[in-house]
């Protein structure tokens, strides 16, 4: 990578891959969640993630970037850890809390990734693209806060330490 444009391209490809990888594990997470409110929040998150991936693809198309083919190794690791956790046998509230914690780590990574891409786009005066990335970043934060609120209200007091 030699230019800011190269960094933006790499970041967009990485985000596209991260969203794709998350979409592959979300159904398994949803399946393993017992709390209905948390399950519904994850189902809504699934729909939002599809929307985010579509918007990233549109940005890549506009910039003439092939967004497919790269792999987000951070998500590989986070997803492998989540799958390993979900293989365990435990009480429902412990499973739900553990799944939430793993999704929270993924959300942190995605929020940081969108913020980085948005900053690159701003620096390159791609104002329309920066605005789209800002909106997705905002939506990621809202979803994260909603999941956190549900987890705090519904599960943290049920987990036996």
What report would you give on this structure?
- By secondary structure, the protein is mainly α.
- It contains 5 helices and no strands.
- The longest helix is centred in the C-terminal third of the chain and has 32 residues, at 92-123.
- The N and C termini lie far apart (47 Å).
SSE topology:
Layout lengths: L3 H29 L3 H27 L10 H14 L5 H32 L3 H28 L7
Helix pairs in contact: 1-2, 1-3, 1-4, 2-5, 3-4, 4-5
The main pleated sheet reads as:
none
CATH C-level category: Mainly Alpha
Q: What is the helix content?
A: over 70%
Order of helices and strands: HHHHH
Query: How far do the termini sit from each other?
Result: 47 Å
Compute the number of strand runs.
0
Task: Work out the radius of gyration.
Answer: 17 Å
CATH H level, superfamily name: Ferritin, core subunit, four-helix bundle
- CATH names the topology as Ferritin
Number of helices: 5
Ranges where pLDDT stays below 50 over 5 or more residues in a row are none
Number of domains: 1
Strand content: under 5%
Summarize the structure in short.
The chain has 161 residues and is an all-alpha fold.
Key attributes of the depicted protein:
161 residues; mainly alpha; Ferritin; 5 helices; 81% helix
């Amino acid at each position: 990578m030699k230019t800011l444009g190269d960094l933006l391209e790499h970041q967009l490809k990485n985000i596209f891959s991260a969203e794709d990888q998350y979409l592959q594990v979300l159904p398994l997470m949803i399946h393993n969640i017992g709390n209905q409110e948390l399950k519904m929040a994850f189902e809504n998150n699934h729909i939002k993630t599809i929307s985010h991936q579509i918007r990233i693809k549109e940005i890549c198309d506009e910039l003439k970037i092939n967004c497919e083919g790269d792999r987000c190794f951070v998500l590989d690791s986070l997803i492998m850890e989540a799958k390993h956790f979900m293989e365990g046998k435990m009480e429902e509230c412990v499973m739900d809390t553990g799944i939430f914690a793993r999704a929270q780590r993924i959300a942190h990574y995605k929020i940081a990734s969108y913020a980085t891409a948005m900053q690159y786009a701003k620096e390159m005066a791609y104002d329309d693209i920066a605005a789209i990335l800002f909106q997705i970043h905002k939506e990621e934060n809202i979803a994260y806060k909603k999941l956190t609120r549900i987890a705090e209200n519904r599960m943290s007091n049920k987990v036996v330490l």
